[in-house]
Amino acid sequence: MSIYLDHSATTPVDDRVLEAMLPYFSQHYGNPSSIHQWGQMAEAAVERARRTIAGILNCRPDEIIFTSCGSESDNLAVRGAAVAARHAGKGRHLITQPLEHSAVGKTCRQLETYFDFDCTYLPVDSQGQITPTVLENAMRDDTTVVSLMLANNEIGTLLPIAELAAVAHAHGTVFHTDAVQAGGQVVLDVQALGVDMLSLSGHKFYGPKGVGVLYVREGTPLVPSQSGGSHEFGLRSGTHNVPLIVGIAKALEIADAEFETHTAHYKAMRDRLIEGILAHLPDVELTGDAQRRLPSHASFVFKHTDANMLLMQLDMRGIAASSGSACKVGNPAPSAVLQALGYDEAWTLGGLRLTVGRQTTAADIDSVLEILPETVKAVRQLWVTA
Ligand code: PLP
What we know:
The chain is α/β, with parallel strands linked by helices. The protein is built from 13 helices and twelve strands.
């Protein structure tokens, strides 16, 4: 048996994406910065990709910056905007929240530790939600950047980004959102969302790994993290990775064109999983927001359960899942996310994330529902005797 339920970690590359990328490895291999026809062909491919993505995000092509991954997009957005704003004398206060991906969380911590910034981590409720009022109460005169994720990678919660961005803008503050998990699953219209910056990563929506996008609204002051030959409007130097740029654009184009079909399928699979698990297993809770969550995302917390052991047991049975917790084999540590949601130590080692994809079938879900109860039971027995 082989059931992959870890699509939030990564997705396979769509065959159509691979096909679009292949000629740019060894056939059209020019450097887009070169003046000759090889270069021009590569440059044309990069600019086509930029226009495709801009059309889907509803922005201008020159507001799309290609990066090497979602993490780089987050780093460039948060550090770049923070440093630019402080240089302009606007202040040194940042706002984020404890459930951000570490690409944002650790960037904020680094800015605090090494660059004398001051960061507020907004409190979240038990579903990982943040209201505009909570943000409003944290805003200060010297707040320069607010970074709040669109979709949470561990618990699937979708934040009300348009309302949160409006709060930041009322104070003249730049707003960034990490939309890495939302690619292909949520409509990403940057005008409707009202964000100044938005991060994406190709491998979360059936594109290649190692390529990301940062949308940067025109006029948003940003200091580049990577200096050099002034590629990407001076915001991200480095020779373009043409095949991967072609790939991320093709993947987003497909995800956009087939949005209804795929998201309807994800929701059906996700709900079958959630209903089955909550109905048939004792001492388990759904984590994240039950309504406002990613279509593909089912996440749970199991009482008195070591999630790492559970993952290994599931892997031995051919099921790929992941944990919401940061525990390591032999050295379990409670999940900071589950702690921030208010769970006590009986629960904080027991996070399980199951994320469905285009290939997931109802039979896959039913197999998981059959295997999971006995696996959890076995792992819980080990917990009691440990
Ligand atoms: N942000 C979120 C919410 C993510 O889930 C991830 C990856 O899992 C990233 C950023 C980092 O993306 P990448 O793997 O492309 O660096």
